[in-house]
Design brief:
It contains 22 helices and 19 strands. The chain has about 575 residues and is an alpha/beta fold. It is elongated and about 85 Å long.
Amino acid sequence: MTDGWTTACPDWENRIREGRTLMPSAPIFPEQAAAGLEVFRSLLVVDVLHPEGLLDEFGRPVPPTVGEVCGPWLMEIAAAVHGAYDVASGERLLREILLKVPKKNYKSGLAALLMLSLLVLNWRQSNEGAIIAPTKETADNVFKPIRDAIRADPELDALFHIQPNMRTVTHRVTGMSCRVYAADTDTVAGKIWAFVILEELWLLAQRSGAEDMVLEATGGQASRPEGIVISITTESDSDPVGVYKAKLEYARAVRDGKTVDPTFLPLLYEWPKEMLASRAYMDPANFHLVNPNWGASVDPADFMRKFEEAKAAGGQSLKVFLAKRLNVPPAENIGGSWAGAEFWVESTDASITLESLLERSEIVDVGIDGGGLDDLLGLSVVGRERGSHDWISWSKAWAHPVVLLRRKEIAQRLRGFERAGDLVMVEQIGDDVAEVAAIGAMIEQSGLLDKIGVDPAGLGGILDALVDAGVPVEKVVGISQGWKMTGAIKTTERRLAEGAMRHADQPLMTWCVGNAKVEPRGNAIVITKATAGTAKIDPLMAMFNAVSLMALNPMAKAGDMDGFFSNPVIAR
């Protein structure tokens, strides 16, 4: 790697605040960058009016070139890609880029025209490239700028063969082809691709088998030293999962200088920590900071109109807008329509574990909910803290692997919760109930257990397991559901808002809170799933069951915690 080249940008927060470039270095090989830019800048953009209002002899708008309408930040990316190619060795020294930028910042156009410039400059005979999009609609949106740029330029039109039905273009001289794949309909396998662009990586990552698909797509890089992989994505509107989560964490480590990798370039239009904490992203004066194409493809008037609509709607509508148009992480705005969601993140206490909860509590109630084959079995433990009398909670869930097959759209997310330790996948039906019962018995053994609250509809099997494990039958009670849960729901909201209830740092629960949908029932409210089947809320409902019991202000237990922790029985 040449001297002076780095992909780290440790001062990125200052750059974002000041509106400066996030590109940490000039191109490695300036001559190659200039040659690539000459091609990239000359490509035509047919869906944008010429800045000078030029018309042809028939009075039709003349399409502008990329160089005439695209901002410097796009040119820097193209220069970095083309300027990393070492002519002497035939190797591209920059092998991967992750660009995270909000919608409407010409992402699809960049993917399309950057790939087209690579096709024009490629030397290898019968080489191949691919753009992989999550859906057919997204794939079409990426293919159209390639097709239109070729058709609008007589020289390129003569140079390339277009196959619209396959979303493929082929260079007539080198034989190099590029196909735009839709992951939801096309088979993405069996190819050796030199150039790969992954469009909307956050959404690709949510597909079942996403890791294998990405590995298959990028595997050809080993035999194509001139190759490069470019991932372009907006922020996820739910907690990042799978390959997107792993790639984003790696990109941040490289950007911050914690990991040194000069072959990986992170370009992340994200908010500085203090701006997230102060919710500065809600100030229109800051919108341009993470929208580098502000005033061009991002129309300020249209942006403001949609922002006001989302703000008025609140809940999930605002959460999605902030994620997609302002790259606000979903954890900052959980969404959902439950009032407690607004205070959930700030009520997180990373020090809470089941063990620490028992150490700090004078009395404990437990809630259990769910348990269907394609559902979660949720357990939540709520303790009243000694001294402060604040409530602290910890939760866990169990599922059978069949849910991964029946609910493929959330399979990657569930696997992520499993890796985090918040979800257990059981192989045998009944193992989940047995493990829940073991935790209930362990809390009873500690001397802190008040009661265990269960949805009466699922009381039978759980009651038997708890009693068999050593929990007195009189300590297991049914908790009325539906509108009768209003008191527990509102008590939880108020406690969170007052800072009198804290919970463990568990992405599973954050997800469940975001899935909660409030529906009025006369003067009462009920919490239901925002999306049937896929938006699980069972651990949250288990927490409400426990809150129903804790709200009765049970008498504190003495508990023999010293004896218990000298010989504890802790379920996995």
